[in-house]
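Shipment paperwork, digital attachment
Item: protein structure file
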Amino acid sequence: MNTPTASFAPLLPGMAGMVLVGSSVTVSHTLVGAPLFTTQAVRYAAATVILLVVARAAGARLVWPRGREWLWLTGLAVTGLVLFNVAVVRGVAHAEPAVIAVAVACVPVVLGLVGPLLERGRPSRRVLVAAPVVMTGAVLVEGTGRTDAVGVGWAALALGCEAAFTLLAVPVLGRHTPWGVSVHATWLGGALLAVLGAMSEGPSAVAELSGVQWAAVGYLAVLVTAVAFVLWYSTVRAAGAGRAGLLTGIAPLAAAGASAAAGTGVPGPPVWAGIGVVVVGLVIGLRPRGPAAGSAPSAEREPRTAPTPVSDRAR
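Attachment content:
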């Protein structure tokens, strides 16, 4: 059974994954006018093929879900992929985009509280202190905006779906590995989105995509889905959902940097202040605390584990 570790090295894949996710914001703007469900279905279908090919080349062993694993993986696909996209699109009709971003910025707090419980551990005091700091910094970077009651509801759903993307993977990462979870999440999500696309947008909607939009879908499929999913779940498995959750604060920083690089202008003082606050939060929550030689890791650094049913969480 793998136990989440407090060392820094396992965090690197998750950091890279969050940079890719954050940098995709500028690319995603080109898909605003594209058919939502069809476009995302194509993205996840392409990502599934890429993951299968690369996993085979890497020698990763993929296994078919069994028993309750279907519930975890289907729940992950429904919430983390399908409903999240719906919440964002429907939410911006009632709220400014910053409102949705602020809701998602609360993810470190949710993962810091719930993640360790799913891992049969207890929340880390250090992570619980750092999570609100990272959240505050992300809010400063994203800004705030106007909304109504319906917009708040969609923002709350987006937060829950974003947290579910990580939390629902925890029980199955042991047997399926980051490769398996990524493959099953993408094909399940792609299939569900394809059905929604055919029903609401029509089978011919894929023909509406322009050349630039196809390029954007390709970028999202390769880097933001196939690569970033495996990187993210690798860190969740190795470092634990609580510590990994702090890394979500990197995404808005990467988004701000990508926007500046795209020529939208240099970030203003609130953004720079938010970047500084996020960095402080990451230092608080992720700084390794080296134990004395020969001493056992503390309960705060290593979640305590209990025997787990093989059928559900073979780690």
